Amino acid sequence: MAVVDVKQGSSPIILGFPHTGTDVPADIWERLNDNGRILADTDWHIHDLYDGLLADATTVRATFHRYVIDANRDPAGVSLYPGQNTTGLVPETDFDGKAIWKDGRAPDHADIAARLRDFHAPYHAALAAEVERVRAIHGVAILYDCHSIRSHIPFLFEGKLPDFNIGTDMGKTCDGAIEQATLTVVEAAEGYDCVLNGRFKGGWTTRHYGQPETGVHAIQMELAQSTHLETEAPPFAYDAAKAERLRVHLKDILVRIEQIAPGLKR
């Protein structure tokens, strides 16, 4: 299978989708237990949610599931959130802290090394190539990393997660104008709540690529799945009516940051 799907566009905006894939090779699928095979921690339908919002945006999407290997984790296995519950490069549990592998079948160091080579590295090679291509055209590239998660996960955070969760690693990964434009839209979005650099401050992708001094800016948007799913449980069905209301605000964000891009040239 192709482990990454790339659609090239002419915009300075690149949309990253590291967690929407559901492909699991047969040999890995056989090792997952019944809980793991639910694939509950997928960013369900996020590539559909953003589809067509910015016609000329480049998209880079991992087709493999994060249980194969997490494309938004440091390849060295360093935790994004030291001291807090999280999942690793190849998760041992789901977001509820429950095992996803059959007894004695969890991936070992050799498995992880092979998955880094066959899945993680190709995804980031493709993403890095698009960042360089777009920067060469515009003198600037803005990576908008697209994510979602269930709104209630006690293992990871208390209470209900806000609808919009903007991550810029405390302003380090993008110019402040990008952060402010995004915040302005979500703060004005009626019926939604939001937070900047709350529980999710930007994953490895955002932190790795976001180097404003080089002309590459990155921002992560983590959406509560209650904003666009019928239910945050199997079958995780897409709610078209909810999604259309949400897409208005997501499009506004993308259009605004695209308009900002020319002023960010080094």
TrEMBL record:
Annotated transmembrane regions: none
Q: Which Pfam families did the record assign? A: FGase (PF05013)
What top-level branch of life does the organism fall under? Answer: Bacteria
List the SUPFAM superfamilies hit by this protein, alphabetically. Zn-dependent exopeptidases
Q: What is this protein called?
A: N-formylglutamate deformylase
> Which species is this record about?
Rhizobium altiplani
What are the leading ranks of the lineage? Bacteria, Pseudomonadati, Pseudomonadota, Alphaproteobacteria, Hyphomicrobiales
